[in-house]
Amino acid sequence: MGFDRKYLIWALGYVAFGMCVGIYMAASKNHGQLVAHAHILLVGFVVSFVYAIIHKLWLPQPGRALATAQFVLHQAAALVMFAGLLLLYGEVLPEPTLAPMLGIASIGVLVAALLMSFMVLRAGRGQMVAR
Ligand code: HEM
Ligand code: HEM
Questions:
Q1: Span 90-115, average pLDDT
Q2: DSSP states along 73-95
Q3: Mutate to test the pocket of ligand 2, among 33, 39, 50, 106 (most ligand atoms within 8 A of CB)
């Protein structure tokens, strides 16, 4: 399966999950999970969907190892971030306990974004040489 489709499937998983959290907030009249909801939908659904489009349009043949590392890093860091945010805003664990986990997850999401930029720049250079 190509990385465009992998990202698309994960994005659609996050949209359902994020909407469930949204519906839970609306139904319970407790909007405490707003930050988790927003990031599941934005870092999970929207960013994964954008990565799917980038793969589809600009990365027809990405380096397999780098694309795999980028994909695994984004999804692992995003899942850790969402778990941390749900635990934090659900008041299950205190902020000092969760802060390192959230910090590492945030850096993971950032590094994955930088890796995506690197792959796009590298692919663009390859195309220019081919022309
Ligand atoms: C079933 C669909 C959805 C439901 C029931 C829902 C519900 C909610 C609720 C109850 C809030 C808290 C509002 C507040 O207290 O200010 C909220 C906030 C938010 N939602 Fe959703 N939502 C849904 C879909 C989405 C989608 C698809 C996105 C983005 C792709 C999204 C992005 C956001 C964002 C960014 C916030 C935070 C807004 C702020 O900072 O005030 N939501 N949503
Ligand atoms: C490394 C990744 C990210 C980190 C560490 C991060 C962190 C944060 C923090 C600390 C807040 C303030 C939460 C509060 O109100 O207490 C916030 C809010 C927000 N972020 Fe992010 N963010 C990240 C990625 C993103 C991305 C990629 C998007 C959009 C595509 C986004 C959209 C938003 C929005 C709309 C809000 C306001 C809604 C809310 O209060 O939750 N964030 N973010």
A1: 98
A2: HHHHHHHHHHHHHHHHHTTSS-H
A3: 39
